[in-house]
Amino acid sequence: MICVPIFESTTEAAIEAMKEAAEVADALELRLDGMPNADIEALMAARPKGKSLIATVRRVPEGGAYGYEDEKRVELLIRAAELGANFVDIELACGPEMIARLREHKGKAHLIVSWHNFMITPKRAVLRRVIKDAFAAGADVAKVVPFGREAADNGRILEVVASAVREKKPVIGFCMGEAGRFSRLGTLFMGGLLTFAYVRQNRATASGMFSVEETKRYLAEFGYLPGKPPSRKH
Question: Is 143 tagged catalytic?
């Protein structure tokens, strides 16, 4: 599944970006932290039909733009869930109380508990612990995204993703950074739930991200079909 982040500073711009992204993406990630005055009702009313929508209000230490107070962040996510978001994403670092509150009020939405490291890709044991802690906190999906500094980091995160998938644990996992680009494609082959791509390059939300067009082209070249093993034609 290819997900396009919607990271705009106004509600109106976000609505237009959702319309554009819906033409090419499977899912959208609505980054509410980009908007100091997010109109959640208008945004959710305008969400494209037939596309999965992830709502998140990213913390500033994990890449967020606007520093909403924690109470407001949870309120926005709960409201997004009430209005039909398919997923709500909250960081593991928020702690068990905030995560438990969101889980209690998320309704039918699936809970993503996420973790980002903008410096390194830790050892496998650390990454596995993050996934374990995310599910212990109540996650329906664990998201683990470190920073890739060398080619070997791709293999490390992909091995951890594959291990989680074998254990029937839904996971989103890849590396940020130019050195980690391969993992953004490889994660889908390992059974990762989704990868992120941009429609317009100036709207990329992290280094190493491919465009939607590039992602689809590379996946087709390597014989990727959702839910099936890769083709052996290469």
Answer: yes
The catalytic position among 116, 132, 169, 228 is 116
Rounded to an integer, what is the distance from CA 112 to the centroid of its chain? 8
Tell me the CATH number of domain 2-221, given options 3.40.640.10, 3.20.20.70, 3.90.320.10, 3.40.190.10.
3.20.20.70
168 is a catalytic site residue: no
For every residue of 150-163, DSSP letters joined together read: SHHHHHHHHHHHHH
pLDDT in tens, 73-127: 999 999 999 999 999 999 999 999 999 999 999 999 999 999 999 999 999 999 9
H or E element, residue 211: strand 210-211
Angle 234-24-141 (CA atoms, 0-180°, nearest 5)? 80
What ranges do the domains of the chain cover?
2-221
